[in-house]
Amino acid sequence: MKVQVINILQRNPTWLTVLLCFILLIWQFFATALSVNVQIIIFISLILLTGIPHGALDHLIQEAIYKKLNKTYHLRNFLLKYLLIMAIYALVWYLFSGLSLLIFLVISAWHFGETDLEKVPKGVLIWSFTKLIYGFYILSFILLTHVDEVKPIVFKMVGTQSNLIESWSFIEMNVKPILYLLGLSFTTIFIIAQSQYLINFEKERMFRLLIILVSSAYLPLLPAFALYFGGWHALCAFDNIYGYLREDAPNLSFKYIYLKSLPFTILAIVSLCVFLWYCNVFAASFDPFSILFIFISLITLPHLVITHQMK
């Protein structure tokens, strides 16, 4: 029995996330609410253990892509291009915070859809649109079921602009209709896409995702976001990356690629700490979580470019 459980967790580590969901819900039920310290510990743990590391494999993905194309790979050129994309996006954040937030939401939605619906045919317009709508629904569900917690973070990220205040007031008053509309849109476009290009999805996988999403609606924002981003998305991305890298190296172990992610994970963490310190010293209104989400957006954009090439 013990061996069977271990095999299940090795094949589908997101079952651990499902277990963590139940633990947090039970804990919250008996303790009335999760303390801020517990929320922060869960959030930081999942971001550091899986969230950042899955993006720290981009250099291996790029190397494998170049190998398939018979092109010469240089780590220095990879890093320069990666940092250049981050720097340009950081400048856009500084100059146009509202636009940058919109870009972040769009690329996050696309990235979530591309990772979760990895089996769909590539380059087919109807399925590309399905992935985008799916990603928007997932992102909207997590954010809008915690609309009161999201509001101060968003305002710290982009400021209290009049158009943003009006838009946010509309969103606050129409959370359920927005989620229903997105859900209906995804269901409709999914059925149309399936009628043209039938794809068999793993029911057990969908069941795990459903548990994580439903659980997140009853948990505070930080653990809710971390459970999906670190406990689902990052683990699914690890699986996709592992499968891609093994195409040219069948004996490659998962332990090996995780260890390969550590140098760039550490570099990202150090960069984040420096970024937080700088904002704490020089920013007029410092909020660590808004800064953290901006940092995630900066590393998401080049990561999206690399993983899209992999797809």
TrEMBL record:
Catalytic function, reaction form: all-trans-beta-carotene + O2 = 2 all-trans-retinal
Tell me which family the UniProt entry assigns to this protein. Answer: Belongs to the Brp/Blh beta-carotene diooxygenase family.
Top-level taxon of origin: Bacteria
Transmembrane region positions? 12-34, 40-61, 82-112, 124-147, 178-197, 209-235, 256-277, 289-306
Give the cofactors, semicolon-separated: Fe(2+)
InterPro entries in the cross-refs: Blh_diox (IPR022270)
**Species assigned in the record:** Arcicella rosea
Q: What class of enzyme is it?
A: oxidoreductase
Entry EC number(s): 1.13.11.63
> Its membrane topology, per UniProt?
Multi-pass membrane protein
Q: What is this protein called?
A: Probable beta-carotene 15,15'-dioxygenase
Compartment(s): Cell membrane
Question: Signal peptide location in the record?
Answer: none
GO BP, sorted A to Z: carotene catabolic process
Keyword Ion transport listed? The answer is: no
User: Per its record, what are the GO molecular function terms?
Assistant: beta-carotene 15,15'-dioxygenase activity; carotenoid dioxygenase activity; iron ion binding; monooxygenase activity
Record key words, sorted:
Cell membrane, Dioxygenase, Iron, Membrane, Metal-binding, Monooxygenase, Oxidoreductase, Transmembrane, Transmembrane helix
A Gene Ontology term for the protein's cellular component: plasma membrane
According to its UniProt entry, the function of this protein is described as: Catalyzes the cleavage of beta-carotene at its central double bond (15,15') to yield two molecules of all-trans-retinal.
